[in-house]
Amino acid sequence: MRTQVVIIGAGPAGLMLSHLLHRQGVASLVLERRSVEYVLGRIRAGVLEQVTTDLLREIGVDAGMARDGLKHEGFCLALDGDMFRIDMHDLTGGKSVMVYGQTQVTKDLVEAFAARPGELIFGAENVTLHDIAGHAPSVTYEKDGRIHQVMCDYIAGCDGYHGVCRASLPAHAGRAFERAYPFGWLGILADVPPCHEELIYSNHERGFALASMRSPTRSRYYVQVPSDEDLAEWPDSRLWDELATRLGPEVAPCIQTGPSIEKSIAGLKSFVFEPMRYGKLFLAGDAAHIVPPTGAKGLNLAMSDVKLLSRALIARYAEGTETELEQYSARALARVWKAERFSWWFTSITHRFPTMDAFDRKMQMAELAYIRGSRAAQAVMAENYVGLPI
Ligand code: FAD
Ligand code: PHB
After folding, report:
1. Is the pTM above the cut of 0.90?
2. Where does ligand 2 bind, in terms of residues with CB under 6 Å?
3. Max alpha carbon distance in the chain (Å)?
4. 125 in helix, strand or coil?
5. Which atom of ligand 1 is least distant from the CA of 285?
6. Which residues line ligand 1 at a C-beta cut-off of 6 Å?
7. What are the distances in angstroms from CA 199 to CA 257, 304, 365, 382?
8. What is the residue-averaged pLDDT of the chain?
9. Using one digit for the tens of pLDDT, what is the confidence trace for 118-157?
10. For the sheet containing 154-157, what is the strand order?
11. What percentage of the chain exceeds 70 in pLDDT?
């Protein structure tokens, strides 16, 4: 079989890239290792920047978001329970974010493949890349006991942090930059109304907490835990108690508790691999970079990458030149590094680090007090949170 672009991974990046290419007549095949049930069951991001909502509208996959998405014009910060608001709308000249779960985005994007039979394959095992540095790239995979080969012009590595694409690169192909954090986020999803109409990012002496949501009847909460924490140590009751403490006395009475419908621990990491191209292979999304979730940037960076990559591929087929493709990595990385900086900084002012001493804690408190009292500092925060221009 032959196609123009083989896309590895059916996360938000791979699915969106395929739809963007399809709209401009560029053929692609998406290969996903997991089952459709697994992919649609994953609970991850919740906050969409305008770059993401614009792309969903552009490909006409916005009905779910238009119906169920919650527009947020501000968010709250709290220090030891004392809360203040960042008015994103006012501070950015009218911008906002959309609360609409990644699980739902993925479902909408997968459903849109119903009109494109055969172009999205789940359960593709042992995906292997061939001749990525040469003139005849191809991808092989196993499905239903048979090996399939797909010849192509380009390969898009949208297979996340643990995928095969970056792992297939020779050592000289680029360089990785990395920072691991000594903690993770324990997340809980529950069918109870959110405790507040906007998100609350809370710096508490006992550690960070986040109050988020998926809908007016479904809440998503996180608490910072040590990296090696055992999930079994966290029955729902302990988690609800800890949230009440860390979110503080103003919010605690508004927290409605209920049984968890999902509970998991995710590690935190900053990571960038550059360049995002090697030969015929282009990396996009988590395959090339990871941010700690504090800034809500991961999914949105994946989307801005594929916006740039789709434009470059479309230009390649329309004009016959690789000029835009040659610029892809540098253009994507320019935005990626700024989001890395914001996510790292937001993490550093809101989390409790095991090595922190009393002075470090005072610095965090001073930083939050400064943000609270300075419109300029709030504007910087809001500008980054709604998403920098591409
Ligand atoms: P992925 O979603 O990881 O998709 C990659 C796909 O490739 C997967 O389906 C995988 O199964 C597949 N794959 C892997 N290996 C192979 C292989 N060998 N062959 C074939 N397929 C393969 N981001 C935000 O923007 N806002 C948020 O609020 C936010 N909150 C988050 C909260 C948590 C707890 C976590 C964990 C993440 C959060 N993120 C957030 C980050 C966001 O979820 C990711 O950045 C996003 O999923 C990246 O999309 P992607 O398509 O690049 O990669
Ligand atoms: C979420 O709702 O899952 C979420 C929201 C904001 C973040 C991270 C995760 O910064």
Report:
1. yes
2. 45-47, 199, 212, 220, 293-294, 296
3. 64
4. strand
5. 52
6. 8-14, 31-34, 39, 44-47, 102, 124, 127, 158-160, 163-164, 185, 187, 266, 285-286, 293, 296-300, 302
7. 17, 23, 20, 13
8. 97
9. 999 999 999 999 999 999 999 999 999 999 999 999 999 9
10. 120-121, 28-31, 5-8, 154-157, 281-283, 277-278
11. 100
